[in-house]
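Lecture 7 notes: from sequence to structure.
We start with the chain below.
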Amino acid sequence: METDKILGLFKTVTSAAVIEIAIVITVAVAIIWLSQRLLPWLADHLHGKQRLFVLAMIPTLRVVVFILAALWIVPMVIETTVQNMVAILGAAGLAIGFALKDYVSSLIAGIVAVYELPYRPGDWIEVDGTYGEVKHIGMRAVEMVTPDDTVVFVPHLKLWNSLIHNANNGGPSLMVVTDFYLAANHDAHQVKQLLEDVALTSPYVQLKQPIVVIILEKPWGTHYRLKAYPIDPRQQFQFMTDLTARGKACLRALNIEFANLSPEHAVQVTP
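Predicted structure tokens for the same chain:
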């Protein structure tokens, strides 16, 4: 009796239906495969917001293809009555909930990520202390590449319980902060103007964004934070290197002394 009820949920699948299902699956897989290769190639030939928009289309297109394929195939296999759908979804949800709780949670978080957009391909994010560029957003995990060219896979499950730091948030602007640690005996206005000029003359600087110098006085000396934006987020480390090298050269030319102790090794003054 129970067996008859279970069999009653399904249609009689003909050879024509099997062929059609195979064609639908093949076409869906082909579209996803092509999108994951052609769209990144196209994005590499674009810049700024256009590049990020094309990269953001990849996970969205994959979800749409999956949904359309499922809507095509399911009615060919199952008698789509309300009673049948409730029974199948209930049984499937119960089985999946026990067997693949973490995996399904990551899949659901991946779908949420497509619409909430906490990260997109091309974004520079930090998750649990790991910083890198988002290269690919899969159904279960996001693929990042760190500045040291290490590929890291972060499950979307982190979306539920971890802080996600997004440096450019889908845009072409990413702030670079370059630190300088100087001895206290110098003209702060002169150093501030010098560092602003160093950033302004960099070949990597994005001129439409502000250049800001923050001055912090410390027991060991003076801490300068030079904040500016590179033209492309992928240039952030070349930009930081250029600012550091030319900034140090200009400071040495003015005979300005650098702090002898780094902040990590500074002597803590106790009252």
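Points to note: Helices lie at 2-8, 15-44, 48-77, 82-99, 101-116, 158-161, 188-200, 236-253. The chain has a mean pLDDT of 81.
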